[in-house]
Amino acid sequence: MRNDDLALWELSEIADAIAEKRITSVEATEACLARIEIWQPRVNAFLRLFKEKALAQANAMDAELAAGKRRGPLHGVPMAHKDMYYRKGELSTGGSDIRRDWRAPVTATVLEKLDAAGVVELGFLNMAEFAAGPTGHNVHHGHCRNPWDQSRVTGGSSSGSGASVGARMVFGALGSDTGGSIRLPAAACGVVGMKATYGRVSRAGAVARSWSLDHVGPLTRTVRDNARMLAVLAGHDPNDSTTSEKPVPDYEALLDGGVAGMKIGLALPDNGLVPLDAQVGAAVQAAADTLGQLGARISSVTLPDFTALYRSAEVMVKCEAAAMHRPWMEKTPELYAKQVRTRMDAGFFIPATQYIDALRLRAHFVAEFLATAMASVDAVLLPAIPFPIPTIEETDTEEKGGPAVLKMVAGFTGLTRPFNTLGIPALSVPCGFDTNGAPIGLQLVGRPFDEATLYRIGHAYQGATNFHQKVPV
Amino acid sequence: MDERTKTAAGIAAGLQGVKYDDRRLAEIAAEVEVLNDAVRKAAAAHLTFDDDPAAFASIMTKEARS
After folding, report:
1. Which has the closest alpha carbon to A25: A79, A87, A68?
2. Which residues contact A446 (CB under 8 A, 6 or more apart)?
3. pLDDT tens-digit profile of A206-233?
4. CB spacing of B17 vs A242 below 8 angstroms
């Protein structure tokens, strides 16, 4: 995609143009700032914008390049990140009121990696309070709004990441995913989101929601952009003992293999929590047909009953969140939004034996999933969100509540949370638009540490479709 | 207050130091029952004495494809 407006270029296109000195980092940054000026009042994606600092940083990147130094494949590219990645001495709210004025004591490993790669930091982005919530509501900092229809939710918890990338305010953004929080906003805002394998990307210096289930990852406009960003982010970190020492592949170099002969299992599940909407199912079926036309061998797969995986994840996240929030929950519970507080309450009452059993079950769940659903396929294809994107009002648990609203909100994560329990990689890619004009996202799930295969499939799909090139107006 | 809610009230006041009204305690007790039942059933079907939480990290490495 090319356009006179630099903000509409893709991340990899802008990075290559900066490297080849066809444009400057300052020009790219100014284009993003102009776009932010138009879109921020409409979507409320940014919590803090660093206009002067970003321009100074871009200037420095241009000077380095002029002196013959290119830091890496993201040199000079403007981005912004979910406001839960610490930068030493700087504000970091976690989307909360409790930490509105709190300053971080360390810098997150992923920010250090992006700094080293030459990324320009435009600011920090809106998010669900303490990353708890799948819709993008935030009573403290204002709800984030979907760039395709500002009455609709962005998905959460990485709401500002989805909205800012979708509205072309930034070229890429960090999100985090405990139950779908990268993939949901990616799907709802029409962009690409990767929840890599648990242990692939460091969580050090990021606000935790659940240590056992949190995944850090990128949201971008294209699969190629995402592959480039993950290659920078991934890898072992001594500050996060759960990170893997496995070498990080050059994901971008592996993109172009095509899908001919690859085996992809199609799952259009009715997971019991929320029925699969017909137009979402049709869009994912059409995506499978497209991949079939590209040479992939598509077969139907049956997913295991997700109930136990889903409930085990709930046990883990509630217990871990209750433990980490205990001091505030004891002394100042009124400082939380009701829907955030109520998500943690049960964690104080679940017996430790149940929590430990949930942890012990994970190995069995993974083994079973790989031996059944993935036994004879390279990846599983399924929807990311099982229904069309609802409005902010329809999903307002703070003001409205009630069983129907709670069921819809819970339904967001019905097809994403199980893959946090399993820890396996899952990629969300735009695959259409619903009758309201809001995006639909597919989800590709793979074997542990096989992000490269998911990227290859997603890239082939984007080569045959143009959903990712549509721009909200 | 039913027995389940009484138990929750005892945990809140006596063990955890968190405060909830009776209505919320009843909701929490019902929620915990659903979660506990699901995990207990799955545990009964899958887990043995030797199952270790760290097996998750091991299986991710053993099953890795890259």
Report:
1. A79
2. A374, A378, A379, A380, A424, A425, A426, A427, A453, A454, B65
3. 999 999 999 999 999 999 999 999 999 9
4. no
Q: Mean pLDDT throughout A93-99? A: 98
**Average of pLDDT values for A243-266?**
97
Whole-angstrom distance, CA of residue A223 vs CA of residue A191: 9
Query: Measured between CA atoms, how close is A471 to chain B, in angstroms?
Result: 34
Alpha-carbon gap, residue A289 to A276, rounded angstroms: 18
Whole-angstrom distance, CA of residue A57 vs CA of residue A46: 19
Q: Which residues of B touch A424 (CB under 8 A)?
A: 60
- Say which CATH number the domain at A378 has: 3.90.1300.10
What is the predicted pLDDT for the residue at A403? Answer: 79
Q: Do A361 and B47 touch (CB under 8 A)?
A: yes
Q: Could you tell me the pLDDT band of residue A24, with boundaries at 50, 70 and 90?
A: very high
Strands (E), A235-350: 263-266, 297-300
Contact A150, A42 (CB under 8 A): yes
Torsion angle of alpha carbons A388, A389, A393, A397, nearest 10°?
Answer: 90
Q: Which of A428, A317, A397 is nearest to A136 (CA)?
A: A397
A127 occurs within a structural domain: yes
Domain that holds residue A14: 6-308+348-469
How sure is the predictor about A279, in pLDDT bands with cuts at 50, 70 and 90? very high
Report yes or no on A331 lying in a domain. Answer: no
CA-based nearest residue in chain A for residue B10: A349
The residue-averaged pLDDT of B19-40 equals: 96
Give the distance from residue B1's alpha carbon to the nearest chain A alpha carbon, in angstroms. Answer: 17
- Enumerate the active-site residues of A: 82, 157, 181
Q: How many whole angstroms separate alpha carbon A258 and alpha carbon A447?
A: 18
Average pLDDT over residues A154-180: 98
* DSSP code per residue over A185-243: HHHHHT-EEEE--TTSB--TTB--S-TTT-EEEEEESSHHHHHHHHHHHBS-BTTBTTS
pTM (predicted TM-score): 0.97
The answer to whether residue A143 sits within a structural domain is yes
Residue B59 to residue A366, Cβ atoms within 8 A:
yes
A345, A366, A376, best to mutate vs chain B, most B CBs in 10 Å: A345
The domain tally of chain A equals: 1
What's the CA gap between B45 and A170, in Å, rounded? 48
- Classify residue A146: in a domain, yes or no: yes
